[in-house]
Amino acid sequence: MNSKDRLALAEWTVNEAKRNGASEASVDIAKNRNIEIEYRDGNLDQLNEATSNGLSLTVYAEGKYSSNSTNDLRKETLGRFVKESVAMTRYLAEDPFRGLPDPKFYQDRSTAKLQLYDSAYESLASDKRIAVAKEIEALTHQKSSEVLTCTAYFSDTLSQTVKVNSNGFQGETRETSFGSGVSLTVKDGDRGRPSDWAWASAKFLEDLHSPAEYADTAFKRTMQKIGQKKLASGVYDMIVDNRSASRLLGGLYGPMQGSTLQQKQSFLEGKIGQKIASEKLTMIDDPFVVRGLSSGHFDGEGMSTKRRVMIEKGVLKNYYIDTYYGKKLDMTPTTGGSSNLTFEKGDKSLEELIAGVTKGILVTSFVGGNNNSTTGDFSYGIIGMLIENGKLTQPVNEMNVSGNSGELWGKLVEMGNDPYVYSGWRRPSMLFEGVHFAGI
Predict the structure, then answer these.
(1) In terms of domains, do 216 and 252 share one?
(2) Residue 130: count of CB within 10 angstroms of its CB
(3) CA gyration radius for the chain?
(4) Same domain? 212 vs 238
(5) pLDDT tens across 137-184, in order?
(6) Which residues contact 186 (CB under 8 A, 6 or more apart)?
(7) Can you name the residues that pair with 388 across neighbouring β-strands?
(8) Within 230-311, where are the H helices?
(9) Which of 223, 251, 285 is the last residue of a domain?
(10) Which residues pair with 60 in a beta bridge?
(11) 135 and 77 co-located in one domain
């Protein structure tokens, strides 16, 4: 089934839903092919390939709502599926806030060339995939006899989708994504078995790292953990590297969601236009990043995507509001979730940030912990390195950082110039002053 066939089937399904009594309907049809390879300690450990075709039908009938799915796309069975879906919807409780977006939000859809499909996918054979993983694993193992175990990875996905809403929306996508990397464990005497990883994801195969880069990065990060220990509790400056900073950003992102706001579980409720962070934090939701992992011309509801400033120099500018919670909150919908998050960068590398710290901790991983979206209070375990007079001097673990997000972001004093481009959240390293750590 090609894109034209999927679109025609989606239109037919929407019409069938309305013919059977639905007031509105939305249909998504997706075909996904995913390949995953793991090469572990000199052997091909896993080679998985999965191709799926699926149809999702959202029904709105008599003030009621249901979401239904099937993998059987034959019209003779799909007709019965649609009829039963509409019939079952009538048994549900009414929810007057459910419905498709206003068609005005489908307008002004961007035509920007986002480069989300890599034609190199078509010529990528399985032996090449295996060869990449094998080379990454071999180069990592060759680093040292201290390497106990090592697993290299390669994966790729081809996703083709169409979406049709009964009130006038049609859209389709074709995207590729690739990922590769390595994880390893080393010896540390009787202290334990430190481990770490290196990984990259990209829309285009050519944007991944070379096998040698994965091996070098993962080995360096793992060896930095040799001799980890707790430090004395106290107040330290904190640098969070770009790979780990998403954990802290989640403490802001969650409370910006319409569902959290409506349920009175957000410490950011009512704070549009107010300062919630230092002026160093500017966060932009940008769905038009070329080759961006979360780029697109429309969101999951079909609303045309827009570039939005979410936080500007510490001031909260927008929430993430979908159609449902827009109606519940009596707010204009924006979009239900993030696309690419980009940030106003600083002018220093991670190394330069470290060089400017007299006494601090570089956080390279967060471990467990919790975050309360209602109050903003948080507590996380951390792994990292002690910074003394601009130098990394001691591996650190089994410590906790705790505080309140509303206060923490006010302590942000510098952003790095190193956005993490292998994620939809393209965050740089960040420097905070005067953060409380609990240790010995």
Answers:
(1) no
(2) 15
(3) 24
(4) no
(5) 999 999 988 899 999 999 999 999 999 999 999 999 999 999 999 999
(6) 144, 146, 147, 148, 193, 194, 195, 222, 223, 226
(7) 359, 391
(8) 246-253, 258-262
(9) 223
(10) 24, 65
(11) no
Task: Compute CA distances 4 → 11, 255, 276, 302, whole Å.
Answer: 11, 40, 47, 18
Q: Are residues 260 and 306 in the same domain?
A: yes
My answer on whether 157 and 240 are in the same domain is no
Residue with tokens 């999702």: 56
| pLDDT bucket at 304, cuts 50 / 70 / 90 | very high
Task: Identify the domain containing residue 196 by its residue range.
Answer: 119-223
- pLDDT at residue 269, as a whole number: 97
DSSP 254: G
Same domain as 390, residue 271: yes
Q: What pTM, to 2 d.p., does this model score?
A: 0.94
Counted residue by residue, the chain has a size of: 440
Q: Which residues contact 241 (CB under 8 A, 6 or more apart)?
A: 350, 362, 363, 364, 429
Per the CB < 8 A criterion, the answer to whether 301 and 336 are in contact is yes
Q: Is the pLDDT of residue 189 over 80?
A: no
Residues 212 and 260 in one domain: no
Angle, alpha carbons 181-253-96 (nearest 5°)? 120
Given 204, 223, 242, the domain boundary residue is: 223
pLDDT digits (tens, 9 = 90+) for 311-367: 999 999 999 999 999 999 999 999 999 999 999 999 999 999 999 999 999 999 999
Residues 338 and 393: their CA atoms lie apart, in Å, by: 37
Any long-range contacts for 390-393 (C-beta under 8 Å, 24+ apart)? Answer: 390/354, 390/355, 390/356, 390/357, 390/358, 391/354, 392/224, 392/354, 392/362
Q: What's the number of domains the chain is made of?
A: 3
Burial class (CB in 10 A: 0-12, 13-18, 19+), 284: middle
Domain assignment present for residue 37? The answer is: no
pLDDT of 187 strictly over 90? no
CA nearest neighbour of 336 among 317, 321, 316: 321
Q: Do 38 and 161 form a contact (C-beta atoms < 8 A)?
A: no
Read off the pLDDT of residues 264-281 as tens digits, 9 standing for 90 and up: 999 999 999 999 999 999
CB 136, CB 129: distance < 8 Å: no
Q: SS3 of 6, please?
A: helix
